[in-house]
Design a protein that fits this description.
The structure is a homodimer of 357-residue chains.
Chain A: E1 10-15, H1 44-52, E2 61-66, H2 70-76, E3 85-88, H3 93-108, E4 113-118, E5 122-123, H4 126-138, E6 145-150, E7 161-164, E8 174-180, H5 185-194, E9 197-207, H6 208-218, H7 220-232, H8 239-247, H9 254-257, E10 265-270, E11 274-275, H10 283-286, E12 295-303, E13 309-320, E14 325-330, E15 333-338, H11 345-352
Parallel strand pairs in A: 1-2, 1-4, 2-3, 6-10, 12-13, 13-14
Antiparallel strand pairs in A: 4-9, 5-11, 6-9, 7-8, 7-9, 8-10, 14-15
Chain lengths: 357, 357
């Protein structure tokens, strides 16, 4: 029985690499940001899986992680098949990560679509998010790939931007003009008012086959490595060889390695609340502050305290007469940090020494 | 064999009452200030006993405590005989406390001398302290009592003062002129430069017999109660009666009740470092701050932090880019408080509610 033209299957690749520095002491090298319960009772990784689940069955959700986090990821996501955890022998940034995942998808389905998703971002509206993904899929035909651009709401200097060309007639996807680096403040103000600059969400959509072609064209060295890896996948006792080859891949992001060099990309503008939650001080953009601007997770009692960010994992945190502080209690450590130093936390970790971090 | 005239025996009464508010969360109603390890590995009460021990054998050290702290005090001072813990049925301030202790001393030794000592003060020089006590004993003959006055080192407005008359010729003890209330700042400056105003240390010395006479003269109601109690002490099954009588004694301090009304007192001026450690912000007067003015007890790591007071009981406290804070981790609670609110901590405890405090 012949059916209509078969829709290509959608695969979600959730990139759950990352270090433990920015949310210390809640995040550590053992439990980096994707694995921590930053916003509630589930981890950011679990949230990312739950969010895409209505569109992607768990058999087609791949989790890209470092070897040292395999057990944690498995425990947090017991319903995802074991073979869907794509363990990176060493962290080689997002280009190598996604190239390696493309090989795994290819083995299952040479016609698949890959949706690449960071595991550790905040998304404020799950329905709008799914709509955007669907719009991306609908916009993919005739494009090399689709990027999701967040309509900026402030002159943010901490994000990369994507410039797109507003179509003459209303359209769901705009041609990408170029990727741009993190701007200075006055440039960011221009971007904010321009209407055709968007925050780079790090979410991408491609035909898996096209992505591998883009590697061949723009990152031939990585592509050569991927071809060697392709022949080793699924063979027993090839782990050491895979490790050696993967670890020799260039360490570069997908943005630099491929996206910035690729023409024919389309951008889906999205308007839901989004944040990369870069450090503790981001939390008051993501969670609802009280009347005095405090954001608290866990048991917190405040008196004459304002604009503080409090995370109490197991204990009671009481603040009195303080403002603009980050206070975190987790895993036997207490951090008290001025908000304006929160982005710089790795300097504190250096002072703490390796056994504390 | 006749010896020389027998020296009256010295009894130390250590007053270990008090609330748990000012050093929360380290101090609580279960473990008030005398029982906490505020300055090191021993409690302030233990420090007070150790300090006087070279002059007073433990059989003559009495510990005045509330019933709810008897077990804690016994555990902290296992070498002091059980009958030396003078349990107050209810807290009735220092006049009732010392009157009750005077009855206990009287039963052992009608000629004894009582040295009354707060259990929760800082003394910077143990040898100078013992010298001062000896000077007090030597100055007691012909006086109604001896007080120890701390030569002020700053215009402190948080302490009561004692004015004494500088003798024309150098003397170890000066006649007391009057007790004065906590002054305002300009008055405190005058006191500081005057040379005959001293901080009231709360340490007193009397012949036990004289003290009971002073009760009779200046606090007849309390004295009548003490006379009833005298006849009940040491009798079995009189605990309920003792509780009823003691709890009806006027609630008043020894300063107000007796010292301010008593003529013929002498003051021993002392120059060692002393502090009543009234709240967390006092600690940087008592402990040695680092180059940036931080005082830390427990495991603390600081980066770009200044003039902070840190107490880490069980965890690591890390501070980054903050100043003039009190940070305390103890018993599953974390306090982050601006130094200038530290004296006001009970307002925070009211906000916390009874189960937290």
């Amino acid at each position: 029985m012949q059916k209509g033209p078969k829709m290509p299957a959608l695969y979600a690749v959730i990139m759950a690499g990352g270090r433990g520095e920015r949310f210390w002491p809640l995040s550590t090298s053992r439990f980096p940001k994707p694995f921590i319960q930053l916003l509630g009772s589930s981890s950011l990784l679990q949230d990312t899986v739950s969010r895409i689940r209505p569109m992607v069955p768990l058999e087609r959700v791949l989790i890209s992680i470092g070897a040292e986090h395999f057990e944690t990821a498995r425990r947090q996501l017991p319903d995802i098949p074991a073979q869907n955890f794509i363990v990176e022998p060493t962290g080689r940034d997002t280009a190598a990560c996604l190239g390696f995942c493309a090989l795994h998808i290819e083995r299952q389905d040479s016609e698949g679509i890959m949706l690449a998703l960071p595991a550790d971002h905040f998304i404020g509206d799950a329905a709008a998010y799914l709509n955007a993904v669907q719009t991306g899929i609908d916009s993919l035909e005739g494009a090399t790939g689709v990027v999701f651009g967040i309509a900026p709401t402030r002159p943010e200097i901490g994000y990369g931007y994507i410039m797109a060309e507003k179509p003459a007639v209303r359209a769901d996807a705009w041609p990408v003009v170029r990727f741009v680096e993190k701007p200075d403040e006055s440039t960011a103000r221009q971007y904010l008012t321009s209407g055709n600059y968007f925050w780079n969400s790090g979410m991408f959509l491609w035909s898996n086959r096209t992505l591998l072609e883009l590697f061949q064209r723009h990152m031939p060295e990585t592509h050569a490595g991927l071809c060697k890896l392709r022949s080793l996948l699924g063979k027993s006792s090839s782990a050491a060889k895979i490790g050696t080859i993967f670890s020799a891949l260039p360490r570069i992001s997908i943005d630099f390695g491929i996206m910035e060099k690729t023409s024919g990309l389309r951008l889906v503008p999205v308007h839901f609340r989004w944040d990369d939650i870069g450090n503790w001080a981001s939390l008051d953009r993501v969670l609802a502050p009280d009347a005095l601007g405090n954001v608290a997770l866990g048991h917190h009692v405040a008196l004459e305290s304002s604009r503080c960010i409090i995370y109490a994992q197991a204990q009671t945190v009481a603040t009195f007469g303080v403002s603009d502080l980050v206070v975190v209690e987790a895993y036997g450590k207490v951090l008290v940090c001025s908000k304006d130093k929160a982005a710089d936390l790795k300097r504190l970790l250096a002072a703490l020494g390796p056994q504390e971090g």
